[in-house]
From TrEMBL:
GO terms for molecular function: lipid binding; proton-transporting ATP synthase activity, rotational mechanism. It is a multi-pass membrane protein. It is found in: Cell membrane; Membrane. It comes from Mycoplasma anserisalpingitidis. This is ATP synthase subunit c. The chain crosses the membrane at residues 25-48, 68-94. The record marks E77 as: Reversibly protonated during proton transport.
Amino acid sequence: MIYEPIIKLAEETVNNSQNSSGRGLVAIGIGLTMVGVIGTGVGQGYAAGKAAEAVGRNPEAEGKIRNMMIVGMAISESSAIYALIIAFLLLFLFK
């Protein structure tokens, strides 16, 4: 199963007497927060593709389509930025 190495690492980190800070659990948390970036990348790629498709169908509306695409991408990018901030907080605050 795909989660077995993660569970094993978490158990070793918790049971390890030399490393009682749980640094491995923090690393797992950082990795899981960065999973949020995958959806942002897929969504932005889809939006850019659909915008290019729309401009191909209606070149006169290129300015409006571009503006709407930029606003939509900026809104969706905020979730990736939040995930990155959480990852940095986990990395530097939990030592």
